[in-house]
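Entry, Tuesday afternoon. Goal for today is a structural model of the target with zinc ion bound, before we commit to ordering more compound. Inputs were pasted exactly as handed over by J.K., no edits. I checked the ligand SMILES twice against the vendor sheet because last time a stereocentre got dropped in transcription.
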Amino acid sequence: MGILLAVAVLAGYIEMIIPADLLIPGVKLGLANSVILFILYRVGFKASLIISILRTVIIAFLFTSPSVLLYSFSAAVVSLIVMTLLRKSGLFSIYGISAAGGIVHNMTQLIIAGVIMLGIGAGFERIIFFYLPILIISGLAAGLFNAFIADILIKRIPVKEDI
Amino acid sequence: MKNARDGRRKLTFKRADVILIICSLTVAAVLFVAGIISPAGRLTQLRVRAYRDGELCLDHAVTDELRTVLTGHEGGENVVVIHDNGVYIETADCPGQDCVKMGRITKAGEEIVCLPHRLVIRIEGGKAGIDAVVR
Ligand SMILES: [Zn+2]
């Protein structure tokens, strides 16, 4: 459990060093999500939720500012819940589940940021017609990429007990 | 447990996966195209307006060169440059630097947001211009 948490934090840290969000602010790969996805498949919902929460808190206090926590925390929890429910439905493969998780992750952040942005005078149109489509596409791409990584992890890393 | 090497990389998409992907791509494309088609306005007398916490703090013609410092929430500073019919934030002391990365905007309706400093810089005035012309 400790190791998994360390890996999840590390993945988030590596991503902060790589300036993946240069083109469009807020667009990130979410590498740590592939670790969370792996935990969800291999250990279960509770473990992935705990690690997800701890990870966002640690990242926020160590590397960014606590004010970021509101976005990262709620996005992580909401997307994890959605992924868990979709997995239970049995309709989707890990790719669909991860893609949905990525999209929901971005949408949650956009909703929170959008409320603040509207409060400070940003245009509603800009949020809906510019940020929303970009975040849908980037969430989809990141989700598929993370599923690819998690899929490899799941197949390559043997475990004693599958729960 | 199956031998990992047997399961050579083949993507095992289910039908629901494909539907999900197509749907989200479609929604994104429709929104994007709708945003481009909708007359956010171009034309005459574009103004650069900046808002701090929703209150107007800068109103300047996009055609007039300007280089000024806007003080945002909690004393944060953004250096705003209006140059060659466009606006951009040259430097800022906010964490993340998202506003600087947003780059230059030139069209009506486009905006630069600095969330940490609670600043919005937007190009406005297109619609009024169109109305004036149509009349
Ligand atoms: Zn900024």
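Strands of chain B lie at 47-52, 55-61, 66-71, 77-83, 86-92, 111-114, 119-124.
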